[in-house]
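Example 3.2
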Amino acid sequence: MANIMIYFDIWQQTELQKKQQRKTEQILKLALQLRSMTDNLLMMAKLQSGGKTYA
């Protein structure tokens, strides 16, 4: 019976790690999208300002 409990605990931990991994991947994907959008906005601002950059 103890072996079953150990197996179940390991399975639960594995499932939790999978869920956390998926969340991490989603966050990274969103971060990349945000970076791309920010780059696009900066490029648009630069084009609209005639090539001047404001920092």
